[in-house]
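Practice problem 4.
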């Protein structure tokens, strides 16, 4: 991969040819062996880190004019800090393969005439002249060590570079999902959006289960484009075709989950139950509780009484510790009542998406990705006033 990047990007190739100690870590360019002075004019060695913005699998462009620096603040020959470096103290996460590069600060300095660098070569040369100039003059050293490191760490889950994580600087938060195996039981309206969200999250594996076919009405409440050839196929097969080019660890099965499905759920660390039939939900709840799998159940009840639609959406968390007690509280329909409003098939795509979003946000709170002030485990969203009622029920955590 090192050679692919160098061969595809002439500016990166120039850095290598110039003699810089170039390396690549997923979505970052790393340049080691950068000399600089501390306050006592002692020679130190640091590293420059710059984000790579991937246009495709191999072509990269600059994220912006800034860089990160592994080292203390560089100083002038007179022992004063170099002043034309903006930014401040910060850190970003690199992979274990580059544990020697510990980012301590960011720098911001751009060309006055153009306001941006032409490419990575100009960018690195400019920053090196500022950071290393005094050290080069005083100690007769330079950064051209030709010490390229062709070790390359690429995200193992996604088939494309996860530049979103790098841009947002949330690598440490995303690490909590590295061993997660998440199941989506039911790939209907809400389940389809849940799948879309989870495919793009860094969980180790996404499993989906639904034995139903994909019909025209499904296309109106599922994300993505419609290929007419998908109609009549199983939902699992349709969504596998849409998402298998995006990530590894995607396993979708055209089957239903019931009391006999323990093997299909082996290794699952969390589940989302997205079914609209009470009797099926009851069997799934019992199985998940028996297997010790925490889960979130979603539901939607829409009605049209006097013109516009109204109703509620629900997100209920069944933790490992109190799943059985939560089930006994009857917060979700566990039977097939004749007047079941949800079975009237009133579902709207934006509400399915919102229901999935609320459930996924709750899951990410549980795992520590999002902040949470209270251990809320039951949420009701009212369409009429766009209000959310959140409750702590029992001893859920």
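Answer key:
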């Amino acid at each position: 991969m090192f050679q692919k990047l160098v061969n595809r990007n002439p500016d990166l190739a120039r850095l290598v040819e110039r003699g810089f100690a170039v390396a690549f870590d997923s979505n970052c360019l790393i340049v080691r062996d950068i000399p600089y002075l501390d306050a006592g004019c002692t020679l130190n060695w640091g590293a420059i880190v710059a984000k790579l913005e991937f246009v495709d699998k191999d072509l990269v462009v600059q994220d912006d004019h800034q860089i990160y620096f592994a080292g203390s603040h560089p100083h002038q020959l007179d022992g004063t800090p170099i002043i034309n470096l903006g930014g401040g103290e910060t850190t970003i996460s690199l992979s274990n393969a580059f544990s020697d590069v510990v980012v301590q600060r960011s720098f911001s300095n751009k060309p006055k005439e153009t306001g941006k660098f032409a490419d990575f070569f100009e960018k690195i040369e400019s920053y090196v002249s500022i950071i290393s100039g005094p050290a080069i003059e005083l100690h007769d050293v330079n950064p051209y060590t030709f010490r390229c490191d062709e070790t390359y760490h690429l995200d193992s889950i996604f088939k494309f570079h996860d530049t979103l994580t790098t841009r947002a600087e949330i690598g440490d938060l995303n690490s909590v999902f590295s061993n997660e195996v998440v199941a989506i039981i039911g790939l209907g309206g809400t389940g389809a959006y849940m799948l879309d969200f989870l495919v793009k999250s860094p969980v180790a594996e996404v499993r989906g289960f639904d034995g139903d076919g994909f019909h025209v009405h499904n296309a109106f409440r599922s994300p993505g484009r419609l290929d007419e050839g998908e109609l009549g196929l199983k939902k699992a097969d349709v969504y596998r075709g849409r998402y298998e080019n995006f990530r590894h660890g995607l396993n979708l099965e055209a089957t239903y989950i019931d009391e006999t499905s323990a093997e299909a759920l082996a290794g699952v660390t969390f589940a989302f139950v997205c079914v609209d039939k009470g009797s099926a939900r009851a069997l799934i709840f019992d199985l998940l509780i028996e297997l010790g799998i925490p889960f979130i159940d979603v539901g939607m009840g829409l009605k049209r009484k006097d013109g516009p639609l109204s109703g509620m959406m629900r997100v209920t968390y069944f933790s490992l510790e109190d799943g059985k007690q939560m089930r006994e509280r009857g917060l979700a329909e566990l039977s097939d009542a004749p007047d079941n409003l949800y079975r009237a098939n009133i579902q709207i795509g934006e509400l399915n998406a919102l229901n999935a979003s609320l459930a996924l946000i709750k899951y990410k709170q549980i795992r520590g990705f999002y902040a949470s002030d209270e251990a809320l485990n039951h949420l009701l969203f009212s369409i009429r006033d766009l209000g959310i009622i959140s409750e702590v029920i029992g001893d859920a955590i």
